[in-house]
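Project standup — Tuesday

K.O.: blocked on the structure for the chain from last sprint. Re-posting the sequence here as requested.
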Amino acid sequence: MRPTRLLAVTAVTAVIALAACGEATEGKLRKGEVTTADVIAGTASAYEHFESPSAHFALELPPEWRGNFTVAERPDSLAGARYIVEFIYRPAPGSKEKPKTLMAVRLFSTAAWEKLAARTGDPVAARVAAKGDVVYAVSLPSGNPYPKGSPDAALFDKMVMGVADPNVGVRLTPR
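H.V.: unblocked you, prediction finished:
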């Protein structure tokens, strides 16, 4: 399977894993979830915590994301969205590559999301959580934007694969 095709398949898998994580009942452990005891014992790495006061959600990202991304938040209107939080890959120090989006969380009204979900064609994002009139949806890149074999391509893939791993994944919690 070509690497670009593999990354696209992985991205779809990751969005499905994100959706499962976002709908989980808060306070209950899911199979494979890392606990504080696991981190203290050294059998697991701590998640990278991110919180957006503007978009009203918290996100736990896989350990390999730590220190390797930046965040940009702003109003958004793509497909009826209200707001976007972009997680942007930070190239290695000394790299000549430009930062590229790893993942985006878009916020939609329930009505805008229902209209979008009814459309045919490729989805803009996958619903991962909802609270009140806000639907949180995640999109991932369809391929790796960095040169094949480069350190940036390897880390970018590792970060996307970390999101796709059902035993690690991410957890989005609306606030």
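K.O.: great, moving the ticket to review. DSSP finds four helices and eight strands in the chain. The radius of gyration is 16 Å.
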